[in-house]
Amino acid sequence: MSQIKLRLSLSILHLLLVINSYSNERKFSSNLLNNKGKLKISGYIADKNAPNELTLFIWSDVYVKEKRMYLPHRTQKCLVVDGKFKAEIDSISVNSILSIGWPNSNGELVEAINTEIAENGDSIYIKLANYKNDRLSTTFKGRGAEKYECEYKMKEIWDKLYNGWINDSLKIPPTDPAKYDESLRALYNRESVWHYCLQGQLNILNQFENKMEQEDYNTLKTIVVLNCEYFKLKQLNQILEYFHTTRGPDKCQEIDKISKKILLQTDFSAGDFENRQDYTKCLLERCKVEKILLNKPSVHEVIKLQYSNELRDRLLFENIFINGWVWDSKIRDTIERESYKIVTYEKYRELIKNEMDNHKIGAVVYDFSLPDSSGNIVRLSNFKGKIVFMDFWFVGCSGCANYYNNVVSKVEEMLKDQKDVVFITICIDSKRSVWMKGLKLGKYTSDKATNLYTPLGINDPLITQLSIASYPHPILIDRDGRIISNSQKELQANGAQGLLEKIKLALKKE
Description:
The protein is α+β, with helices and mostly antiparallel strands.
């Protein structure tokens, strides 16, 4: 009976959220443009290591903000002369993300500016000074400068408060299992690290309220509230997972009760939440919590139960895109097929179909033509008749280095005499010089492998076909150039032994 009541109360809460979300029949894809003229950006880099060129990245309709570097986007180059730069962007969609940066000596992107509030008609002057605590000291002037300064200062205060909280032993660490009971009550009493950081950001925002348009104020408030909610729900899920695993569901009634009350505190009624990129990210974290509370087998089942219409369709797709890499191939295939049958909005049907085609076992892999370190062009078809293991990486990726050193290098050594197995590494850095520096480091690959890079970067057809959005990304291909596994869990999470067994199994098949 208690389970039925819990399910009913959560369903009512979600009904209210969905009604609010769709009361105005809004669309998630914000393709309408402002009609305020061009976005103008100029500035000065007061740093002796100033680059000769900046790159502007513009993303529209981003469905997974954290993976934006691997999603379709526009780029625009901007020359830097004596530290000065100037650029104009013809058009930028509402709810776009704009990033300005340059590669450092190791090929890693130095992201000087990252903003979600850029719009046509803004004309800002940016001064980038020397690093302070791993951040560029940044100031803004010009038309629209107040909102950029506010956004920058809110990010600064978040970092300062969060790091201060974590380093203060008198506070409650959010990730210490020994104090999860205290952490749960801190969440309920609105005294967690996330509430603490949110209040600091809102204090900054309120200082700028009379200096910017109300619409910009509301947008910034929505962004920081969603950010807090996401981390709060993520921590709640972590706590629940720990207690249900260590104590068992039967001994977690009180914890579940408090968790349900925390969910009821979430209020998306005041603000333009549903049109922000982080909205569905928050809802997916919420679904993870409800999976535990409702004793459901998967987030996929919770989405089907709690949501409908376009919001349901978007969540079904994002669940696949964000979480699918940790699933077994068969589980992913089942969820993708069922989602495709359920989804009615054509946009998300196409996205899911694309994921299905690119990840399913047996799909033919694009016959790429990529250069090696000697300038020779290498094609996948060159290795027909052999088992091919491919590892995608980029310079500066610590996870890529760890995967190579702890998994790939060991398997490579164990199979060094196996002539029917080929190890190929593909670097997604578009600059050959950056890739060559990465090869010389010896952290990401060895000279035993066939090492290639993509001159088109993440826009290479191979990366597009395989829908690669996070790195490292391993793929196992059979003798006919078809996918055996495109699952990071199967090829990465089980360590060297797991990868070795997967390759040996492939060798046994004719």
